[in-house]
Each structure stands twice: as structure tokens, then as C-alpha cells.
Hints:
elongated; ion transport; Atp1_alphaprobac; transport; transmembrane helix; mainly alpha
Amino acid sequence: MAEEEPGLKPLQEDARITSLDERLKRAKSEEAVRNGAPTGEADANYRLGNRVLAELIGGMIGGAVIGYTLDWLLGTTPWLLLTLLFLGIASAFRNIIRISNQRSK
């Protein structure tokens, strides 16, 4: 029955409410800056640091594991371990240099 009755027309949006919303958004952004809220740039730098660390650790561990396994299979203890460990480190540094030379987006 209520649907059949002519109801009140919706009110026009009040300019005071719009102004208040804009001031609230501005105040929240200023407060975030004042409190030192993290920005997207800090997150990108954190991810880049983690990527560099992963490259370094991955290269060293990968070379050591493969070298140790080949030494164990071929009986050439410690030569392949040392060789592949240094190759893994060199590869990690090459990748880190490549990452550092990329332009940031």
C-alpha cells in the first residue's frame, strides 16, 4: 500500500554535506601524512629489498646444494661445491646489478 501512495520526493543533495565530505577527506589525508602513514613508495622499496635479498640467498643456496649433490654423486668433494657456490654468488650479483639498473615505474 505504501508503494501506491505518493511519497515525498527525494531531497536534493545539500551543498553543505558535499562541502563537509570534501573537508573530511582532506583532513584524513593531512592526518595520515602527519602520522607518517606508509606510502606506496615505501612499499615498493620494501619489495625491492626483499627481491634483492632473495636473489642473493637463492643464488648461494642453489649453487651450494647443486654443487654438494654433484660432489656426492661424482666423488669430487669439495671442488664442484666451491665452483657452483661461487657461480651462484656471481649470478646473484649479476641479477642484483640488473635489478638496480631498471628504471622505477
